[in-house]
Amino acid sequence: MPKKRRLSKQARLEDLETYASLKAITYTSSNPEFSIESITASHAKMDASQTTEAQKFDEYESAKDISADDEQDFHDKLLGAKTQIKGLFGENSNEFQSLGMKKKEEYNLGRRTKTEPKP
């Protein structure tokens, strides 16, 4: 079943206005699918599903925030561990390098070279 597109906010507002106006009219439909009872049931179903969607979205946002906090806590602990390894073993140790860090001696320090003056 192909995914149906969501209605625009404007279309939803217009539908709600039309529904409110329709309830005020004494209306008998020859097609039971378009009777006021059927439309009221459809509105109730839509309202319930939108409420469920909002609740699930809030749960999702809450879980996303908790996950982000846990990721940051994990990251902070790894940074602390790297600092501990650097302090215990030094910046030129293999242990420090095994954490994905570059040894201090591997950095190429930029040194100026003497250039010959042009005659």
Describe the protein's architecture and organization:
It is a single chain. This protein has 119 residues and is mainly alpha-helical. It has three helices and no strands. It is elongated, with a radius of gyration of 33 Å. It has one domain.
What's the arrangement of secondary structure elements?
Layout: H1 9-24, H2 36-89, H3 94-98
| Average predicted confidence as pLDDT | 90
- Described by the principal axes of the CA atoms, the overall outline is elongated
| Secondary structure: number of strands | 0
User: What is the share of helical residues?
Assistant: 55-70%
Q: How would a crystallographer describe the biggest sheet?
A: none
Query: What is the quaternary state of this protein?
Result: single chain
Enumerate the spans where pLDDT stays under 50 for 5 or more consecutive residues: none
Number of helices: 3
Distance between the termini: 82 Å
Structural class: mainly alpha
- How many domains is the backbone divided into? 1
Q: Tell me the radius of gyration.
A: 33 Å
Approximate strand percentage: under 5%
Q: From N to C, what is the helix and strand string?
A: HHH
Keywords:
63% helix; 119 residues; mainly alpha
Brief characterization of the structure:
With 119 residues, this protein is mainly alpha-helical. Helices cover 63% and strands 0% of the residues.
